[in-house]
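Key idea: predict the complex, not the pieces.
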Amino acid sequence: MSQYEELTTTMSDQQYLVEALTELGYKPEVQPEGTSLRGYGGVAWNRPVQVTIPRDQLRGALAPIGFGRDATGVFQAVIDDLDRQYLGLDQAWLGRVAQAYKEKQTMAVARSKGYVFRGREVVQTPQGPRVQLRFAVR
Amino acid sequence: MQDKLIVIEIDEAGNSTIDLAGFQGQGCGDVAKDFRGDDAVTQSSKKREFYAQVATTKQTQRKV
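Result:
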């Protein structure tokens, strides 16, 4: 039987998290007051999560994914251990979420501070793709 | 005068580097601060140009 596990993230802004998940092709649901998670076979997570990816968006998954705030306001990911192991919904997947999150955050900062966007490029490196954003000063 | 250019790279773990060129004096620090937000700086170095009036800096940062 599977069980939920909590994975650490450093993401704390719900808007950027939702935008990042959307960019990765999901339609995340937001429950400001938090909700519990229920998956196949009775797997459950009873601590509140504010952002969820429903199971039907995770092809073949046993359980939905949740992101719940910890005591410091940082989101922690809640993922079924078998989905993590067999569907690749693991730390690397979470890293891609964090990469998209950081890009959204950076673009928002640049807009708010008046920097001029000069382009975006994905640079392939041995350590994986890196998103390169270029800005100029107005 | 050299254009002021900001290049930010984000890796697959969400860690980022910021590379600044064409800035003078405190200007580069202000820009780095804008983009750093609450992130922790794990590495910071000044390029040779920094010591020739035009300041450039490169920082690596990681979310805390």
